[in-house]
Amino acid sequence: MKSAKIMISLCLVFILAACHHKTDTTQHITQSLKYAQGFTILQHDQYKEVIVKNPWVPGEILNRYYLVKNDTTSIPTDGYRIKVPIKTIGITSATHVPFLQMLNEESSIVGICSPKLIYSQSIREKCDKQEITDMGDALDINTEQVIKLRPDILMAIAYNNSDSHIEQLKRVGISVVYNIEWMETSLLARAEWIKFVAAFYDKDTMADSIFQDIEEKYISLKQLAATAKEKPSILSGGNFRGTWYVPAGNSYMGKLFQDAGASYFYAENKETGSLPLTMETILANFSNADFWVGCSATSMKELKDMDDKHSLFKAYKQNRVYNFNKRMTPDGANDFWETGVARPDLILADLIKILHPELLPEHQLFFSCHIE
What we know:
Elements: H1 2-24, E1 29-30, E2 39-43, E3 48-53, E4 61-68, E5 80-83, E6 89-91, H2 97-102, E7 109-112, H3 121-128, E8 133-134, E9 136-137, E10 140-141, H4 143-149, E11 153-156, H5 164-171, E12 176-178, H6 187-191, H7 194-199, H8 204-225, E13 234-236, E14 239-240, E15 243-247, H9 252-259, E16 274-277, H10 279-286, E17 291-293, H11 300-306, H12 314-317, E18 322-323, H13 339-342, H14 344-355, E19 369-370
Parallel strand pairs: 4-5, 6-7, 6-11, 7-8, 11-12, 13-17
Antiparallel strand pairs: 1-2, 2-3, 3-4, 9-10, 14-15, 15-16, 18-19
């Protein structure tokens, strides 16, 4: 009797193990990502799994989304079910706009945060006509408007803290999708988030093609910059309330300077984001920089009026100062922070034109402007 019980127990173990093995070996294909680190896309037999990683806690998942094409598909219980392709979307950032436009899905936008900060004229016109609803500020979302709109998804920017408005929207059944492209450390990685957005429209192939074209243009420009005979030194940013923020060496702007063939003082720095420096440090490290890019001033006079010490820089003395304000509306919407996210090749082309004009004689500055 005892032997029989042991045999039955062993059989159950084998059966359960076999079932478990069968589940684990269900084939899934990971969509190819070359640069982006913040998300993963897995293609299962009956659904697609989109994973957004937590950039503040290594190894932790911020959110998981299961994209299905019909309501009867069974999915795991550890994520959000979203039926695709979605038809409507609410967006909280201008950086979401170019991806939707490139995917021919601008018409799906029903709500937007801070419409005055959107550069796209077609979007602004729809907002003026109230065809797109103003959902308030990204950090203070008008939850009543979002609930009234009830978009298929609300694409939100995640921060390293809880947002009571977002939590409220989740509780009433709004599908909040976190887009954290801004946390990536290279321009191509940020641009690759078009694949993330495309997944919710079931346009993976289209996104792959669009990104491949942008990547090829960027790499071609980078290779061109590498042929330059000299590497001019570069200074970036400006003095803000006594602190001058410059790109860290491992930030997307720091990497951009290197790709453009510039000599950058903090190129070997391994940090991401920005480095807060004093004016004294800036003068010590950058007073002889050949070019100054990304300043906030619109004229040399304004630049000097902001701080008389600005006139001590070589770039100022030689009139080699540029901002990124060429495509900017009177109320402050800047296309550099909008289209620039999806088209890093255009940013790189501008910088190469500034540093090595002989390499791109036909290029007209797109985002950048030489201040007088």
